[in-house]
Inverse folding.
């Protein structure tokens, strides 16, 4: 066996699984499974299947998810750079599916980096409602923000905060909360051998304390009648059923909702809390009643020896109070731009993600109010000339950068904000320059100038590498009163990639250096 599993881990799993252990152990000899999930913000499933360069096999628990052959490297195809799909481990697609997200919901992804589940949530929101996506690691929010932008998400806020600070700003606000909790990672050993090597160095108590605190803090942010999905990628009952049972015993207004019966989910192991030969009786050590422990049988597990995927645990926690359907989201009114600024720098430069810092809602010291007005005027002129839409949300100014947010500025005051909304552009040398995330979230019919490049003839790869292209004027599609000269939305066979600037047969490449094909 190539993968060396920790002896303490195999001993514990043998005690828990009994006769089932040999089949479980044998699953580590099988190849790991690779998957992609179609980004329905940009393309529907059937349309992608018609152009897919890969053979696709449906994933049972995710209608937009498909198995692909692992060696295909789907990240090396232009369709990936167009944001048409996200590369994701198949089992990791399950938690968002049972979160039951609908357009208009207010959703919090609390432990979100690198962003796979957040982009899945965003697709289900279909551009309506709100997604607040957060990670406590500043370094990991770089990938989180980039994936949000690559996938064309307009209605997301990206935070780099502790759950407690978010709870202070958003009490009983979200009607859907996802907690993909930090865990010991036992279910990912086959995917990531380093996790197996590091397993014995990790503290189980540290993880369970963290999971307890995150879940209890999330409950403060859930609106009445809302839903929390708690998930881990570990087998440990201490991190799974015991966490849920402890929560249920303290919060009597929550119930565990059984998982769908057609997704390959095995039931939770409530019996492991009461008695597991050779292991601690968790009901006694944690003061759980047998009745509460039994409720965790409604949780679900994906086992690597039962499904084509890695190990995962899921629990749906439904609040039993009356549903609060009120929204605290901005509705866009043309001409009504409530802007504000802070004393923080541009968040995007050469592909690097930089946070705004803690939003104070105050103007930069010494910065004239006319600078905000100039930026807004530049944006409005660009929007009216170059775009064929009126983006919904509040226009926010941070230094020389402009965002459109689904929230009011007051909601973000005091929070470390990486992205306050859809980043649409900046002013340099007195001129408005559209941002790359503006392009990636546009639909082709929303731009006034469009250039379609060919995937088969290699034009798309040349663009993604940052090359300057010779493009005949006849290939630029533009509205009649605008002309072909200026910023152009560059597409891969109709799917937006980024900006170019066309003049006299030459397309100056505006694709960000940090995003380029290597």
């Amino acid at each position: 066996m190539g993968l060396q599993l920790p002896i303490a881990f195999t001993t514990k799993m043998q005690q828990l699984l009994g006769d089932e252990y040999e089949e479980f152990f044998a699953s580590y000899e099988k190849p790991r499974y690779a998957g992609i999930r179609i980004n329905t913000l940009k393309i529907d499933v059937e349309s992608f299947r018609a152009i897919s360069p890969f053979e696709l096999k449906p994933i049972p628990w995710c209608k937009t998810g498909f198995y692909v052959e692992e060696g295909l490297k789907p990240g090396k195809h232009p369709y990936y750079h167009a944001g048409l799909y996200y590369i994701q481990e198949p089992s990791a697609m399950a938690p968002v599916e049972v979160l039951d997200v609908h357009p208009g919901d207010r959703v919090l992804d609390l432990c979100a980096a690198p962003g796979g589940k957040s982009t899945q949530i965003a697709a289900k929101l279909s551009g309506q409602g709100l997604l607040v996506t957060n990670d406590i690691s500043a370094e990991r929010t770089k990938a989180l923000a980039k994936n949000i932008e690559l996938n064309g998400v307009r209605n997301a806020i990206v935070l780099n905060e502790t759950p407690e600070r978010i709870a202070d700003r958003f009490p009983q606000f979200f009607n859907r909360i996802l907690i993909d909790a930090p865990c010991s990672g036992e279910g990912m050993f086959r995917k990531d051998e380093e996790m197996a090597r590091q397993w014995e160095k990790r503290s189980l108590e540290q993880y369970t304390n963290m999971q307890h605190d995150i879940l209890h803090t999330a409950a403060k942010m859930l609106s009445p009648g809302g839903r929390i999905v708690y998930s881990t990628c570990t087998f440990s009952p201490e991190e799974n059923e015991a966490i849920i049972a402890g929560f249920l015993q303290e919060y009597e207004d929550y119930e565990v909702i059984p998982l769908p019966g057609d997704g390959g989910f095995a039931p939770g192991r409530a019996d492991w809390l009461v008695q597991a030969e050779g292991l601690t009786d968790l009901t006694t050590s944690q003061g759980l009643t047998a009745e509460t422990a039994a409720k965790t049988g409604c949780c679900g597990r994906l086992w690597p020896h039962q499904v084509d995927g890695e190990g995962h645990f899921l629990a749906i926690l439904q609040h039993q109070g009356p549903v609060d359907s009120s929204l605290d989201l901005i509705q866009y009114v043309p001409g009504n731009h409530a802007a504000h600024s802070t004393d923080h720098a541009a968040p995007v430069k050469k592909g690097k993600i930089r946070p705004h810092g803690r939003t104070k809602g105050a103007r930069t010291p010494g910065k004239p109010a006319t600078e905000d007005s100039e930026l807004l005027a530049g944006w409005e002129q660009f929007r009216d000339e170059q775009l064929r839409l009126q983006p919904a949300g509040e226009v926010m100014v941070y230094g020389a950068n402009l965002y459109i947010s689904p929230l009011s500025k007051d909601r973000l005051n005091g929070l470390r904000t990486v992205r306050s909304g859809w980043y649409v552009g900046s002013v340099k040398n007195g001129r408005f320059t559209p941002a790359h995330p503006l392009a990636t979230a546009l639909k082709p019919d929303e731009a006034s100038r469009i250039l379609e490049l060919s995937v088969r003839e290699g034009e798309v790869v040349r663009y993604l590498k940052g090359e300057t292209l010779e493009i005949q004027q006849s290939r630029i599609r533009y509205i009649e009163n605008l002309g072909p000269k200026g910023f152009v939305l560059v597409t891969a066979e109709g799917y937006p990639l980024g900006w170019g600037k066309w003049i006299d047969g030459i397309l100056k490449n505006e694709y960000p250096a940090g995003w380029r094909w290597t």
Remarks:
- The first helix runs from residue 7 to 17.
- The first strand starts at residue 34 and ends at 38.
- Confidence is low (pLDDT under 50) at residues 331-353, 360-368.
- The radius of gyration is 24 Å.
